[in-house]
Design goal:
35% strand, five-stranded antiparallel β-sheet, 373 residues, globular, 24 strands
Length: 373
Amino acid sequence: MRACLILLGVLSMCSMCFSQECNTEFLENEDFPGTDIQVLLSPDAAHCQHLCTQHSACKFFTFVRSDWTRDKRHFYCYLKSTPTGQPNRRTPLLGVTSGFSLKPCSPAPQPCLSKVYQNIDFLGADYQTFFTADYEGCQRACTQDPSCQFFTFVNNVFTPENIRFKCHLKFSWSIPRTPNVEATAGLVSGFSHKTQMSQMSDTACQGKLFPNTATPGNFIQSLPTATAEHCMSLCSAHPSCTFFAFQSDNFTCNLKNNQNEMVLRAKAGVTSGIPERFCQLDTDWAKVPLEGIDLRGSDIRYVLMDDAETCQRTCTEDANCQFYTYVKSDFHNSEYWRRCYLKRTITMPSPPNIAKLSNVVSGFTLRNCQGVV
């Protein structure tokens, strides 16, 4: 019996090692049924694989291709996970492609997405349109605009004629958003010191904050953030945000839009502000530990550490980690003491909707690609 238990232990460890091997293979017409943790839209299996890689819990995926015929679920990216890191089942299925997360391969946090997609429309998320001679010009405009993450270009034979050559620039979040922020005694949270919080630029700048001041109305989006400075980074990245208000009692960042006026009202516990664009925001705030704050969710894994400083360094050194939470010895449940939770969210461009459409071309910014000016 003892020998059997030892053998089972060895097999279990081998299974864990196997599940963490770097596997870049795409399995055409093979399905990993069940164990879904999230469904996103993706233009191809490679993009779906990157989404799985950036998702905190995803271990493998199944992508529904454009040649799928059973129903209208084209471009569905099913993110999946099991405790072993391996699919429970594998079955043949026409029209799908499956594969594995690239986390064990130590990928770059922001992959280069240089492929363009003919007759594919990235629907929604537009913030600016104009006319360009070809899709290459549209992609260059997207690459040069810090707000743009992907685009759709209407070519010269599209119907109706009046929108031919139109370039649609589109936005999705490229900086970390904490999934939930709560005040909890005995915890320390913070961000990786390598995390990019603001736009790429050599020009340093600081946004404007108005303590104990509200900006009523003009709401466009609400996000959980730990500080007013983090809220400012989000507003600065969003092309439609003209000012913001951070509520410290519930850690809520309200992004707002009004290009004509900004009304300020005195209100305790609220910090409002104006974003900065085309410059490098001061990110020293991201290096300050947040005592008594839980950045709950989005865990990659946890490891045991002696202090919060070591936890922060571990997060900074891990290419997949964007933020962390450390459990101190004065936390109410001793079972969690010394745990360092490493966390991340998806920050790569992710279109909200994808559909087949003749005579359009879609693609992504090339800012993360080497050699692109």
